């Protein structure tokens, strides 16, 4: 009878080990399966071209910045940072009359800044050249 008990215990241990191996195998397969299933949509999103955000045009961005600086200047007309920013944006937009207007304000606020005066003179010359070219066409 002792032999049959030992055989019974040994068989139960073997069965338990087989069940344990089966559970481990199923767990590993489930883990990797869920990882793959989560990665597939992410990979599809990366390779999908039509989901790429459309590039905002530089001009529209500059126009938005210009409006922002103008809003600040409505509240604080002598804000140096906003005036400098507005000047830079208008120069990038090739808005010479607007840049001249902004530079005139900066010259009035900072008469000691010779670079503002020089820039204003240059812009006025450029505006004069542009109007002369338009009248000759």
Description:
The protein is 83% helix and 0% strand. The chain has helices spanning 2-47, 58-75, 80-92, 96-109, 114-136. The longest helix is centred in the N-terminal third of the chain and has 46 residues, at 2-47. The termini are far apart.
Task: Describe this structure in a few short sentences.
The protein has 137 residues and is mainly alpha-helical. The protein has helices at 2-47, 58-75, 80-92, 96-109, 114-136.
Distance between the termini: 119 Å
H and E string = HHHHH
Radius of gyration: 37 Å
- Tell me the helix content: over 70%
Largest sheet: none
Descriptors:
137 residues; mainly alpha
Itemize the secondary structure elements and their pairings.
Layout: H1 2-47, H2 58-75, H3 80-92, H4 96-109, H5 114-136
Helix pairs in contact: 2-3, 3-4, 4-5
């Amino acid at each position: 009878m002792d032999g049959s008990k030992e055989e019974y215990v040994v068989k139960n241990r073997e069965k338990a080990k087989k069940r344990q191996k089966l559970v481990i195998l199923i767990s590993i397969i489930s883990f990797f399966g869920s990882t793959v299933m989560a990665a597939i949509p992410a990979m599809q999103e990366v390779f999908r071209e039509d989901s790429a955000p459309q590039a905002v045009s530089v001009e529209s961005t500059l126009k938005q910045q210009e409006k922002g600086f103008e809003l600040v200047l409505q509240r604080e007309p002598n804000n140096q940072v906003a005036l400098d920013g507005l000047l830079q944006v208008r120069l990038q937009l090739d808005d010479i009359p607007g840049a001249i207007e902004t530079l005139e304000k900066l010259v009035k606020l900072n008469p000691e800044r010779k670079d503002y005066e020089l820039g204003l003179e240059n812009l006025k010359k450029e505006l004069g050249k542009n109007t002369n070219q338009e009248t000759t066409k």
